[in-house]
Amino acid sequence: MKNYFITLTILIFFCSSGIAQVNQEMFDEVLKSKNKAKEYSFTTIEDYGATTIVMNYLGSVITKNNTYQVLTYTIFYKESGDFKSSILFFDISNIFLGRYSLGNSSKVAAKIKGQKIIFDTIEDYCDKSIKNELDVSNGLPEEFRTKCDNKFGDIRLMEDEF
């Protein structure tokens, strides 16, 4: 029984590190290019089906204490048809710092303006004229609010794991 748990632990470690390695290679390709005009698309095949990952390099945000590289990231699960979108932050050495999940959206239209990331309303039922912004001038906040209309919205939390 003890050998079973050791084998299972080793198997989980190698499987999870393989997934992380694939993602890091994808991120490195996008971050090294620094090409704002290109949409990067990657398809992976997993046990549960195919996924397509789409990334866009938004650019760098320079604050008095940090320089952040910013990507939009959307994953499409082909089997279920679900989408998940995030804004990701890396340091200048391409080390992942964290992300804000933006929910079930097929595309995040975002841009950098000064020390803010400006993006369109995410959900289909929300007021499309509203622009949301994430201010990183004082670092990456633990949370920020996205607006759906003048009354309602969502709290987006900083996640430091992918």
Largest sheet: 7 strands, antiparallel
Mean pLDDT: 81
Shape assignment: globular
- Give the number of helices: 1
Q: Widest sheet: strand order? A: 1-2-3-4-5-10-9
**SSE succession:** HEEEEEEEEEE
Distance between the termini: 32 Å
Strands, count: 10
Low-confidence stretches: 1-22
Range of helix content: 10-25%
What would you call the quaternary organization? single chain
User: Compute the gyration radius: what is it?
Assistant: 17 Å
- Main structural class: alpha+beta
| Beta fraction | over 45%
Short description:
The chain has one helix at 2-33, and strands at 39-46, 49-62, 67-77, 82-90, 96-103, 110-113, 116-120, 131-135, 143-147, 153-159.
Name some characteristics of this structure.
162 residues; alpha+beta; three-stranded antiparallel β-sheet; 1 helix; globular; disordered N terminus
Question: Describe it for me?
Answer:
This protein is α+β, with helices and mostly antiparallel strands. The protein is built from 1 helix and 10 strands. A 7-stranded antiparallel β-sheet has the order 1-2-3-4-5-10-9, with helices on one face. The protein has a 3-stranded antiparallel β-sheet with strand order 6-7-8, with no helix packed on it. The longest helix has 32 residues, at 2-33. The radius of gyration is 17 Å and the shape is globular.
